[in-house]
C-alpha cells in the first residue's frame, strides 16, 4: 500500500514539472493575464472621433488637412499635415479648390483688406498715398510721425482682421482666414462641429465688439478702463470678462429685438467685392434703411433673396424662416426731411462717443503709471501689466508682436480715454449737405517714449477734429421730439442762404 502512494506521488511531481515547463513566460512589468494593446485603427476620425462634419463638408480629412489617412501611427499620419487649412496662407489651395469664385470675391473685400479704415487713418495723419490692403502698411516711413501711426495700426489697432485669430478672451478667440467667419468657437476653443455654412452673430461680434458698430446692435457699451469706473467693483482675483472689458446693457436695436441677425441684412453678397466694374453698382449697391423701408406700394421688391412681396406687402424672411412685415414710410416727416436728413438722426437711441482716445507706445519699464488701467481690451497688454505689477518673477520686456508678421518689436502700446459717453448723439451736416450722426472716430492722441525715457512724440493729432459720420445700429422709435435733434441745423442753413448776396 505504501508503495502505491509513493508511485502516485512521483507521477504527480512529474506532471507538475511538465506543466511548469509549458507555462507561458511574461515580462516582469506585466501582471499575469495581461494582453497586448490593440494597434490604432487607420483613419483620422478613429483618433479625432469628436469631430462632426456637416453635409456640405462631409469629405475625407486629408482633402483639406493633407497628411496620411491610411495609417494609425500618429507621426506617419501627421506627415505633411496642414493644421489650419483655412488660414490666409493656405486657403487658396484648400478652400479655393471648391470655392474659387467666393474666395476671389472675399479676398478683395473690405473685411480682408481693411483698406478704408487704413487709408482713412493714415491720411488723417498726413499720408498722401493709398494702400490696397493692411498687409501693405510700411514697416518704416521716412516721415517719423507716420511711422508711429503705421506701428499703431500694425501692432495695436488691427487686431480684428482675418489674418488674426482674435484675442485671448472667451468670446473673441476665433479662426483666421475663411475660418474667421465659418468656424464655430465656444469659450475660446474650437467646437467639434467643423464648418458653418453661414456665420451667426457670434462670429460677427468676435470682431465687431468694443464700441464698434455691431456691439451696439446688442446694446453693448464698453466700460471705462479705469478700475474705479467699472461695475461691479472689481477685485484682484480673476473673473469672467468674455469681451475683455465689462459692458453696459443699453437698448438693443429694434431689428435685433425682432430676431434678425446680422446677415439677414448684411448678406454675403453685400460683403464681398465685385471684380466686374460693369455690374458692381447693380449687384453691390450700398445697403441703407431705404433698401427695405423705402419701397412704395407697386414698386418691385429689392434684389435680395430674403425679400418678397406677398399680397402687396414687403416681407423679409430671416435665416430662421420667420416672416417679418417691413414697415413703409408713412410719417410726413420722411417726405419733408428724408432727402436731407439721415434716418438714424431721428431713429438712433444712442451712439458711441468715446471722445479723446489716448495711445502711448512705451519702451521703458515705467509701467506703475498704468496701475489703475490694467484692463486694456488687449490680453497681451493685460498679461504684461499683471505680471510686472503683481509677480515676484523677473519682469517682462515691454514688447509686442506685429499683428501681420507676428515678429516682436520693442515698445508696448497702452490705451485710455478722455471720456466714454453714449447719451449725447452728435448731429452734424456732412460735406454732401446731408445731416447725419457723427462720432469721434479719429479723435486720436499719440505719444511715444523710447527705452531711455526720451519723449519722441507728445500728443500727436491728425487733421481736423476726428469726427466722421457713421450709422449707429441702435434703431428705435423716433419719438415726439425728433426735430429737436436737427432743427438748429436747418435754421443755420436757412440763415446762411438768406445772408448770401
Could you provide a short overview of the structure?
The chain has 501 residues and is an alpha+beta fold. It contains 19 helices and 16 strands. Strands 11-8-14-15 form a four-stranded mixed beta sheet, covered by helices on one side. It has a three-stranded antiparallel beta sheet with strand order 5-6-7, with no helix packed on it. A three-stranded antiparallel beta sheet has the order 12-13-16.
Per-chain topology:
Blueprint: H1 2-22, H2 44-47, H3 62-65, H4 74-77, H5 100-107, H6 110-113, H7 115-124, H8 144-157, H9 179-182, E1 183-186, E2 189-195, H10 201-205, E3 220-222, E4 247-249, H11 254-257, H12 262-265, H13 268-271, H14 277-283, H15 290-293, E5 307-310, E6 313-317, E7 323-325, H16 332-337, H17 343-347, E8 357-362, H18 379-390, E9 399-401, E10 408-410, E11 412-417, E12 426-429, E13 435-439, E14 444-449, E15 455-460, E16 468-469, H19 483-499
Parallel strand pairs: 8-14
Antiparallel strand pairs: 1-2, 3-4, 5-6, 6-7, 8-11, 9-10, 12-13, 13-16, 14-15
Features:
globular; 16 strands; single chain; alpha+beta; 3-stranded antiparallel sheet; disordered N terminus; 4-stranded mixed sheet; 28% helix; 501 residues
Based on CA inertia axes, which overall geometry fits?
Answer: globular
In terms of per-residue confidence, which ranges show pLDDT below 50 for 5 or more consecutive residues? 1-11, 13-31, 275-284
Number of strands: 16
Strands of the widest sheet, in order across it, are: 11-8-14-15
Largest sheet: 4 strands, mixed
Distance between the termini: 150 Å
Mean pLDDT: 85
The number of helical elements comes to: 19
Helix content: 25-40%
Rg for CA atoms: 32 Å
The helix/strand class is alpha+beta
Question: In percent, how much strand structure appears in the residues?
Answer: 5-15%
Amino acid at each position: 500500500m505504501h508503495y502505491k502512494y509513493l508511485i502516485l506521488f512521483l507521477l504527480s511531481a512529474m506532471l507538475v514539472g511538465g506543466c511548469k515547463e509549458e507555462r507561458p513566460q511574461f515580462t516582469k512589468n506585466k501582471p499575469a493575464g495581461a494582453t497586448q494593446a490593440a494597434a490604432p485603427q487607420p483613419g483620422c476620425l478613429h483618433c479625432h472621433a469628436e469631430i462632426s462634419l456637416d453635409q456640405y463638408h462631409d469629405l475625407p480629412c486629408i482633402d483639406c488637412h493633407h497628411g496620411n489617412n491610411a495609417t494609425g501611427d500618429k507621426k506617419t499620419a501627421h506627415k505633411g499635415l496642414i493644421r489650419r487649412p483655412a488660414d490666409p496662407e493656405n486657403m487658396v489651395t484648400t478652400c479655393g479648390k471648391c470655392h474659387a469664385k467666393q474666395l476671389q470675391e472675399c479676398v478683395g473685400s473690405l473685411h480682408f483688406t481693411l483698406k478704408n479704415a487704413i487709408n482713412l487713418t493714415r491720411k488723417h495723419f498726413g499720408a498722401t498715398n493709398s494702400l490696397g490692403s493692411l498687409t501693405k502698411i510700411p514697416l518704416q516711413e521716412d516721415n517719423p510721425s507716420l511711422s508711429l501711426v503705421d506701428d499703431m495700426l500694425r501692432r495695436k489697432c488691427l487686431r480684428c482682421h482675418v489674418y488674426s485669430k482674435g484675442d485671448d478672451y472667451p468670446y473673441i478667440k476665433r479662426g483666421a482666414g475663411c475660418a474667421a467667419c465659418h468656424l464655430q468657437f465656444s469659450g475660446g476653443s474650437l467646437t467639434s462641429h467643423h464648418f458653418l455654412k453661414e456665420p451667426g452673430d457670434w462670429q460677427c461680434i468676435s470682431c465687431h465688439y468694443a464700441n464698434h458698430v455691431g456691439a451696439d446692435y446688442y446694446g453693448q457699451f464698453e466700460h471705462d478702463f479705469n478700475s474705479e469706473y467699472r461695475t461691479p467693483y472689481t477685485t484682484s482675483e480673476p473673473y469672467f470678462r468674455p469681451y475683455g472689458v465689462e459692458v453696459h446693457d443699453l437698448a438693443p436695436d429694434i431689428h435685433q429685438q425682432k430676431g434678425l441677425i446680422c446677415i439677414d441684412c448684411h448678406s454675403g453678397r453685400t460683403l464681398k467685392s465685385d471684380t466686374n466694374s460693369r455690374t458692381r453698382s447693380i449687384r453691390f449697391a450700398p445697403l441703407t434703411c431705404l433698401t427695405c423701408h423705402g419701397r412704395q406700394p407697386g414698386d418691385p421688391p429689392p434684389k435680395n433673396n430674403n425679400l418678397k412681396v406677398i399680397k402687396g406687402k414687403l416681407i423679409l424672411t430671416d435665416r430662421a424662416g420667420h416672416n417679418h412685415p417691413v414697415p413703409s414710410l408713412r410719417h410726413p416727416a420722411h417726405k419733408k426731411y428724408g432727402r436731407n436728413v439721415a434716418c438714424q438722426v431721428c431713429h438712433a437711441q444712442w451712439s458711441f462717443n468715446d471722445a479723446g482716445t489716448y495711445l502711448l507706445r512705451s519702451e521703458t519699464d515705467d509701467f506703475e503709471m498704468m496701475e489703475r488701467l490694467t484692463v486694456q481690451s488687449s490680453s497681451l497688454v493685460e498679461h504684461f501689466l499683471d505680471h510686472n505689477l503683481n509677480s515676484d518673477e523677473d519682469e517682462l520686456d515691454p514688447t509686442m508682436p506685429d499683428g501681420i508678421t507676428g515678429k516682436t518689436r520693442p515698445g508696448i502700446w497702452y490705451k485710455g480715454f478722455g471720456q466714454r459717453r453714449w447719451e449725447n448723439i452728435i448731429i452734424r451736416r456732412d460735406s454732401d449737405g446731408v445731416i447725419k450722426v457723427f462720432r469721434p472716430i479719429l479723435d486720436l492722441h499719440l505719444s511715444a517714449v523710447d527705452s531711455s525715457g526720451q519723449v519722441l512724440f507728445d500728443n500727436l493729432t491728425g487733421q481736423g477734429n476726428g469726427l466722421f459720420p457713421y450709422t449707429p445700429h441702435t434703431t428705435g422709435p423716433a419719438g415726439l421730439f425728433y426735430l429737436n435733434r436737427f432743427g438748429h441745423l436747418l435754421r443755420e442753413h436757412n440763415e446762411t442762404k438768406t445772408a448770401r448776396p
